[in-house]
Design brief:
The complex is a heterodimer of chains A (159) and B (431). Chain A is mainly alpha-helical. Chain A is built from six helices and no strands. Classes of the chains: A mainly alpha (159), B mainly alpha (431). Chains A and B meet through helix 1, helix 2, helix 3, helix 4 and helix 5 of A and helix 2, helix 3, helix 4, helix 12 and helix 13 of B.
């Protein structure tokens, strides 16, 4: 069950993130084509690319972390083995869960306040900021859930 | 708490997390959070939401996933082998031709792929078996590939320079143009070294590389990537498009090149996107951690006090620069390039600017020092990549091969200190 949920979270993470990346390429290419051949600019590409970047990064967080792409100083870590390594891994996972939960708490609060205050971007389309910020909240909540599942799996494995 | 003590406490906390192996992004972020608490500014912790939002929602940074995607596409399409073989054919008349091929192919390829590790892997897997067969000394093979791959961090488009531009608010286009001449000079220095080495009798090989490909075929192997680079840099230099737009154009062109000249398919494209996302997410989370850390430093007044202290100590600008270089050389031994830069810039950048150094020039020097870290033991990533490609190799052989290039990079830093215009001339010609 835990494995199934982790896999689902990973799949959702990478699907949404890849979609954001492809949309970014497509949008910028359409803007360049329109500007070069039709002397026309949408004037929102910079802003939208930024929002897609946020979505790509936060929604792709689970996949990226699970793929072990987060770097660390390996000098000592590479020498850990057996039970000691699994204990250390568990401690590190708890540390990252504390950090991510703090980040999630404040980002969700920001998201809620942007919604309540109807904060808008300075561009002419005046995007309601809570919409792009939602990808940060969703990505981080998903990531915390993923970390809890991984910790439960590790604890279960040790037991 | 007195600022000096605060700084020491923060550094100790950070290394308490870093050394056992907590992820760098998390170590930076947690140290930042603790720093804010220790500074008695607990109410300011809520700022981490705005820090995360503003760091990620940055148009300059959007160039990173797009350049990485472009590089991943080129790698996935299998063009690297054709590119290497074609360069080797052109350099056949030169003594030790394959060694020069390694450096030239790696420098061009890593500039496009944006990853020195991927380049060392891509070029190395094509070059190492061929060169061992021809009797080249192992140290020379490993050294030329490991160091050639590092050149891409300097030669634009460079991910590290985009990061530097984003943090210091310097123009990425100016940074790119500042890196062009030092990149070429460093490549030439590498080539001069390999040429001098191959003139020594024991390093000569009897039977150098010969390929079946015609001149026209070799042109087909080289021109697409060179054209891609010229289009990207040319459009940036003329100011027609932004770095993000040039990266999008590069991604699109690499899809076309990969489809028609390589072995690109949908599965490989998706995999390339996944790889680009993995790296981007990792970098952005290090940036968020570094910005939280930087916020702690600023809110506790450490950076202001440190700058004043350094000014009062009466360090000469050159003395300060040499100390900074030493710090980066040491850090490069244990940390990867982007992390090292993001970790140190909040403290070091104001000192360098106050000492009167040009921020654009310093960006170039910093990137060379980061390059150096890629090939210095025990954490030089390129060294391990080479070792993993050739199971018969020993890490000591790879290190031995890379050491002369470390010294060449240090010489290059010296040249840049003596002749800063090498980096500053080209940006000054831009409108």
């Amino acid at each position: 069950m835990i494995d199934f949920m982790i896999q689902r979270l990973k799949l959702a993470s990478i699907t949404l993130s890849v979609t954001a990346l492809f949309l970014m390429v497509l949008m910028v290419m359409v803007e360049i084509t329109a500007r070069t051949f039709f002397q026309f600019s949408f004037l929102v590409v910079d802003e939208m690319a930024g929002y897609l970047m946020v979505a790509m990064v936060f929604l792709g967080l689970i996949f990226s972390f699970d793929s072990e792409s987060f770097v660390r100083v390996e000098a000592f870590y590479s020498k850990y083995t057996g039970k000691f390594k699994s204990t250390i891994d568990l401690i590190f996972l708890i540390i990252i869960l504390i950090y991510s939960s703090t980040l999630t708490y404040y980002i969700v609060k920001l998201n809620i306040s942007s919604y309540q205050l109807e904060s808008k971007s300075f561009s002419y389309i005046q995007t309601l900021l809570y919409i792009p910020q939602l990808s940060m909240s969703i990505g981080l909540i998903g990531f915390c859930l993923y970390l809890v599942l991984v910790i439960l799996k590790k604890v279960g494995g040790r037991a | 708490m007195e600022w000096g003590m605060s700084l020491v406490v923060l550094v100790v906390i950070m290394f308490t997390f870093l050394i056992p192996g907590v992820w760098i992004a998390i170590s930076l972020g947690i140290t930042g959070l603790l720093g804010i608490i220790l500074a008695g500014q607990i109410k300011m912790i809520k700022s981490i939401s705005n820090i995360s939002w503003n760091t990620t929602n940055d148009f300059i940074l959007t160039a990173i996933p797009l350049f990485l995607f472009m590089g991943e596409i080129i790698l996935a399409s299998g063009i690297s082998t054709k590119f290497y073989t074609s360069i080797a054919k052109w350099l056949k008349p030169v003594p030790g031709g394959l060694l020069h091929s390694n450096i030239i192919a790696s420098s061009l390829f890593s500039a496009i792929s944006g990853s020195s590790v991927a380049t060392a892997a891509g070029i190395g897997s094509a070059a190492i078996p061929e060169m061992k067969k021809r009797g080249y000394r192992k140290e020379l093979i490993y050294g030329s590939i490991a160091s050639g791959g590092t050149l891409g961090i300097l030669i634009p488009p460079s991910i590290v320079l985009i990061l530097y531009g984003s943090i210091t608010e310097e123009s990425v286009i100016r940074l790119f143009s500042a890196a062009v001449i030092p990149g070429i000079v460093l490549t030439l220095l590498f080539i001069m070294y390999t040429l001098s080495v191959t003139l020594i009798k024991k390093n000569r090989v009897k039977d150098d590389f010969s390929t079946d490909i015609t001149f026209l075929e070799s042109l087909k192997g080289i021109l697409p990537l060179v054209a891609l680079m010229v289009i990207i840099l040319g459009s940036l230099y003329t100011g027609k498009i932004t770095p993000t737009e040039s990266a999008a154009v590069g991604s699109f062109l690499s899809l076309v090149i990969g489809r028609y000249l390589g072995h690109l398919n949908v599965k490989k494209i998706v995999q390339a996107a996944k790889n680009a996302i993995k790296t981007t997410t990792m970098i952005v989370f290090i940036m968020i951690g570094a910005q939280i850390f930087s916020f702690a430093i600023v809110s506790s007044g450490i950076n202001r006090e440190l700058t004043t202290w350094v000014a009062d100590m009466g360090f000469s600008p050159l003395g300060l620069l040499l100390v900074v270089c030493l710090i980066y050389i040491i850090l490069g031994c244990v940390m990867d390039g982007p992390s090292m830069m993001l970790l140190t810039i909040p403290l070091i950048f104001p000192l360098i600017v106050q000492a009167g150094y040009d921020p654009i020039w310093f960006g170039v020097v910093l990137v060379i020092l980061i390059e150096l870290g890629q090939i210095t033991p025990p954490m030089g990533l390129n060294l391990f990549v080479i070792q993993s490609i050739d199971p018969e190799s020993k890490i000591s052989e790879v290190v031995k091969g890379a050491i002369p290039y470390v010294f060449i990079m240090l010489i290059m830093v010296g040249i840049l200190i003596a002749f800063p215009d090498l980096a500053l001339w080209l940006p000054s010609t831009m409108k």
